[in-house]
Amino acid sequence: MKFAPMKELLNLAEEKGIAYGAFVTVSYDSALAAIEAGSELNVPVIFITGTDCCELMGGFEGTVETVKRAAANTLVPIALHLDHCRTFEECVAAINAGYSSVMIDGSSLPFEENIALTRKVVEYAHPLGITVEGELGKLVGEEGDLIVKGPEGAQTDPEEARIFVERTGVDCLAVSIGTQHGAYVAAPHLNIPRLKAIREVVNVPLVLHGGSGTPVDQVQDSIRNGIRKINVATDVITAMVKKYNEVTKVPGFKYNTAIYPQVKDAMKELIKEKMNQFRFM
Ligand code: 13P
């Protein structure tokens, strides 16, 4: 099987006025959970894997193989996306291993350096038909080894976003409008006026990171205003851990492999719920 270019899926989402979820995977069973969810609802699946996730599946090659095996019998399009990559070299390695999409995250760099690094990845990826996501602005929270503390977070500036997209040629842009990576300590308030202002001047699909725990009405408001991909990691992990805890508390619980399919199904149900929330129109 061949992975779908993520750009095509995001363009489809744009046409339909919906968003596609992009779900974390760290193993064959977590990949299977999302693929079964997508197959049951007939919704394309985007996988996000940071380099930390890839290490758990045997590097980029192992991740490509794991996801392909899990997707062997599905008819829905599947995109495999490298999440929050900070170097040109790792983007190249993922593309060479078979990824259909990469995110080059230069958001911690000065503006001009972010543009130069992102442009370099685009120049390598586009002739090969690979989608590139860039990021501008900074989300508070933790994602793998990426840690941004409260005062260091910064929302995306619309005019900078316009210049960034024009000069880099990225296919989609991750924006910071008030979500956070990981569990929220205080309820989020998405900055929809800022999102509207970005969308007015940027002509590529917009991406929302930190999709976990964000109130559904705010998520759906962001979709109405141009968000086309929503990254979800913490909620998938929470569904997994909750199920382990629940099952082990049942009287007479035995430590055997029967627990694994139940945990996989808990992740699948969570993913189905998100997929339905994101295509609510
Ligand atoms: P959450 O863990 O908050 O869902 O964020 C995931 C994410 O944005 C990955 O890039």
Task: Write a brief caption for the model.
47% of the residues lie in helices and 18% in strands.
Characterise this structure.
With 281 residues, this protein is an alpha/beta fold. It has helices spanning 6-16, 28-41, 51-55, 59-70, 88-97, 111-125, 158-168, 192-201, 216-224, 234-249, 259-278; strands at residues 20-24, 45-49, 78-85, 101-104, 131-136, 140-143, 146-148, 172-175, 180-181, 206-208, 227-232. Bound molecules: 1,3-dihydroxyacetonephosphate. The site of 1,3-dihydroxyacetonephosphate has 15 residues, from strand 3, strand 11 and helix 10.
SS element count, helices: 11
Strand order of the biggest β-sheet: 1-2-3-4-5-8-10-11
Hetero groups in this structure are:
1,3-dihydroxyacetonephosphate
How far is the first residue's CA from the last residue's CA? 31 Å
Q: Which percent range fits the helix content?
A: 40-55%
Order of helices and strands: HEHEHHEHEHEEEHEEHEHEHH
In percent, how much strand structure appears in the residues? 15-25%
**Rg computed from alpha carbons, rounded to a whole number of angstroms:** 18 Å
Global geometry: globular
Instruction: Report low-confidence residues grouped into runs of 5 or more.
Output: none
Tally of DSSP β-strands: 11
Structural class: alpha/beta
